[in-house]
Amino acid sequence: MEDSCEAELALHAALMADPRRAVPEAELDALADDDARDNYRVVLRFRERLLSAGTLEGAYLALFQAGSVDIPPLFIEQMVHVILRGVLDGCGEPLRLRAAELFFRDQKLNLQDGAILVADLETVEMHAAGNAYGSIGRLIVEAQTSLKSVELDVLDRDNAALYWERESSYDTVISLNHGRAALDALCRGIESWVAHFHGVQVKVKPLARIDEPRWAWHIGLDAASTGILNDLYNGVEVDHGRMRRLLSLFRMDFSSAADMRPDIAGRPVYMALSANEDDVVRMKPQNLLVNLPLAPRS
To answer: In which domain, by residue range, is 239 found?
Structure first.
């Protein structure tokens, strides 16, 4: 065991001194601890993806374009977090920053009195008893507190500055109701995400419903929404339970039709965001990148 620990410490020190250093398989085999060997292989595979792509954005895109995701979900979430940190650098709009957390942190949904409220899932689970979480925890976990009694805990235009005091705590709630500021902020985040990766300008707005009977393109922002939109498009009846979990609809319009596939150029792209059966909102921002109807590029 002592020799194994020394081998692991030596490998760690070597990689700290030279992060791009090649690691022969025999060097990994010298580690007696199975978990340590497996962890190093995961990290080294991730490193190779980064080095091959040259940029974090390139590595992120390649991960999904290849159709084979071989790194842990936590790594993917952290990649998105870092990328968004750059995209939103200098942003002074707290609601936009809070809404961007949906891109990389799961949210817990609470539907109450017509309000669509989401709070950080990890934070909710940490404070499931509500004793250290105040009215936010009781609202989300117990679903017994009225929206009015926790108005100050739900970020909106009037109290958005509260975010600056608690941005690292992930303990604020936002409303995704149609017409609320946080939903508009999420739209701006989607626009910035697409522009950053693809260099195309799009305009996103929330919708109360899709009036176009045979639309040209849709994107589910999570696994549940993809299934719902597919069924609606194909005329398959969607039961009440699934429709209840559909939180928001969106319309995306490209500023330039030339950026779209010629066969649907100029037509809108519809999107949806839903919660799963456990009332968890697990957004997949990669869908916005790999599923867009972009014009072919030489």
So the answer is: 181-290
Burial category of 121 from C-beta neighbours within 10 Å (exposed 0-12, middle 13-18, buried 19 and up) = buried
192 plus 265 within the same structural domain: yes
Predicted confidence at residue 149, as pLDDT, reads 33
Task: Give a yes or no: residue 89 inside a domain.
Answer: no
Q: Write 123-131 long-range contacts (CB < 8 A, 24+).
A: 123/169, 123/170, 123/171
Q: Could you identify the residue written with the tokens 């004793």?
A: 131
Same domain, 193 and 275: yes
For residues 225 and 273, is the Cβ–Cβ distance under 8 A?
A: yes
d(CA 200, CA 192) in angstroms, rounded, equals 10
The bridge status of strand 217-220 relative to strand 115-120 is unpaired
Locus of tokens 């925890």: 137
91 vs 142: CA distance, rounded Å: 34
Is there a domain that residue 75 lies in?
no
Give the HSE-up count for residue 212: Cα atoms under 13 Å, Cβ half-sphere: 15
Question: pTM (2 decimals)?
Answer: 0.87
Task: Identify which has the larger pLDDT, 271 or 138.
Answer: 271
Residue 133 makes CB contacts below 8 A (sequence gap 6+) with: 123, 124, 127, 141, 171
Q: Are residues 198 and 155 in the same domain?
A: no
Residues 171 and 185 in one domain: no
Query: For 80-134, how does the pLDDT look when each residue is reduced to its tens digit (9 = 90+)?
Result: 999 999 999 999 999 999 999 999 999 999 988 889 999 999 988 886 655 454 4
What DSSP line would sit under 1-43, residue for residue? -HHHHHHHHHHHHHHHH-TT----HHHHHT---HHHHHHHHHH
Chain position carrying tokens 């739209």 = 187
Q: How far is CA 78 from CA 82, 209, 246, 286, in A?
A: 6, 33, 26, 13
Q: Are 258 and 229 in the same domain?
A: yes
